[in-house]
C-alpha cells in the first residue's frame, strides 16, 4: 500500500531536512550561521548582524569565533577602533564558503524534494 494511502487526506504533511556541516566537536556551518555571515556582509558589524537576527552580540561573536576556529584562514575579520571606527568583514574565503554552501544546499534540497516525492508515492 502506498504511504500516501495511509495518511489522512484532510491533513497536510511536509517532510523537512536541514543541511549542516559539523566537525567532531562543534557545528561549523548551517542556515543560522549562513544568515549571520550574510548579515555581517550587509551591515559591516557583528553587533548589527546579531540585532537583525534577535541574537545577543555574545552569541554572534561566539558563532563567528567558532567558524574561524574551523578554518585555516579566517572567514570573518574584525578591526577595532581607529579613525573610522571598528568594523567587521566577511573575507573572500568566507564569501567563497557562502557560495559553496548555498550551491550544496540547492543540490541537497533538489535531491531531498525528489526523494520525498518518491516516498509519498510509494
Tell me what you see in this structure.
It is a single chain. The protein has 4 helices and 4 strands. The protein is mainly α and 122 residues long. It has a two-stranded antiparallel ribbon. It has a two-stranded antiparallel sheet with strand order 3-4. A hairpin with a 7-residue loop joins strand 3 (76-79) and strand 4. The N and C termini lie close together (7 Å). The mean pLDDT is 89.
Short summary of the structure?
By secondary structure, the protein is mainly alpha-helical. The protein contains four helices and four strands; from the N terminus they run E-E-H-H-H-E-E-H.
Rg, nearest Å: 19 Å
**Which range best describes the helical content: under 10%, 10-25%, 25-40%, 40-55%, 55-70% or over 70%?**
40-55%
- SSE succession: EEHHHEEH
Low-confidence stretches: none
Please work out how many helical segments DSSP would assign: 4
Global structural class: mainly alpha
Q: What's the rounded overall pLDDT mean?
A: 89
Amino acid at each position: 500500500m502506498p504511504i500516501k494511502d495511509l495518511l489522512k487526506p484532510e491533513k497536510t504533511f511536509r517532510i523537512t531536512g536541514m543541511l549542516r556541516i559539523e566537525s567532531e566537536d562543534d557545528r561549523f556551518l548551517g542556515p543560522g550561521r549562513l544568515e549571520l555571515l550574510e548579515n555581517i556582509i550587509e551591515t559591516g558589524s557583528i553587533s548589527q548582524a546579531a540585532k537583525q537576527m534577535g541574537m545577543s552580540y555574545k552569541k554572534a561573536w561566539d558563532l563567528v569565533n567558532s567558524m574561524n576556529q574551523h578554518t585555516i584562514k579566517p572567514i570573518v575579520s574584525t578591526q577595532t577602533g581607529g579613525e573610522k571606527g571598528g568594523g567587521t568583514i566577511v573575507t573572500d574565503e568566507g564569501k567563497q564558503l557562502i557560495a559553496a554552501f548555498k550551491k550544496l544546499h540547492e543540490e541537497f534540497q533538489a535531491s531531498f524534494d525528489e526523494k520525498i516525492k518518491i516516498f509519498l508515492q510509494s
